[in-house]
Model the fold of this input.
Amino acid sequence: MLCLAALICAGTSTRSALADDLFSSIPIDTVFAPPSASSTPTTPRPDDKSERIQRVLNITQLTDILRDAGLEPEAEEASVLVKLQHARWTFPVVLGLDEQREQIVLIMRLADLAGKPALSSDRLLGLMSASRELRPAFFSYSDKNKRVELMMGIENDAISPRGLRDQIRRLAQMAEGTAGLWETSTANTSIAATAPTAPSGVKNAAAPSAAAPAAGGLLGKWSAARSDKEAFAIQLNADNTFVLVYIKDGKQSRSTGQYAVAGGQLTLTGSDGTKFAGTLGSVTAKTFEFTPPTSAKLTFQKAA
Done:
């Protein structure tokens, strides 16, 4: 594992530069996906419903895609509703088509403010700042429903059940990482209340818990393993950049980008725009715990 960690060192020699070319690129959320039952990659079958790619023409077709994704869609007026269980929340998400059918619009219903005090100016500014970080997703307020919402449009091209489900989960991860901004102590009972967490990279956000790990304790090179065939190595630098190496069945992949630590979470934003957040557990001089939202906890050890 130490050899693997050494590979991500930001060296200046020609030999190191040539070594970088040995790595392929891979989205961060794919790296931390739950381990498959088999270590041998499989090619999706043409009859695999979750992999069928199509353009969505109407709400009925959108409903069928969501059902093939393993969700339980409910019909609404000119739209469809699904409920996603994520961490401690059950997020209602409304999906529909824009007028030109060029995009599928996802609206995640967050805090219901009907009959409740308005959000403070600090929170509103925080939501505006967060929207810059979360693009193409953004926060919105429905005056009709008196509700804070998180919205995102995805191109209506090559839509598959698996891909659409992943986009909904991505929206849930964004909502989790910014809960300190939109949650209220009297939030809608369909959304479980948790301790507020500050979003990554957002100023004026609610301050993280005093027990939350500090970024300084994570600097350096770390490695973790799921099995003798699957392992991770990550280097976290003082300028908030990271290099992540993933190895499985002898094949290596490399991701780079920016990281942030806030509200007990480590958020990685890849150079390709992929954003991924996981929960930080115990952090010591030699280890730290990282739990991705869709798989088991990983314990990283400091590389010598």
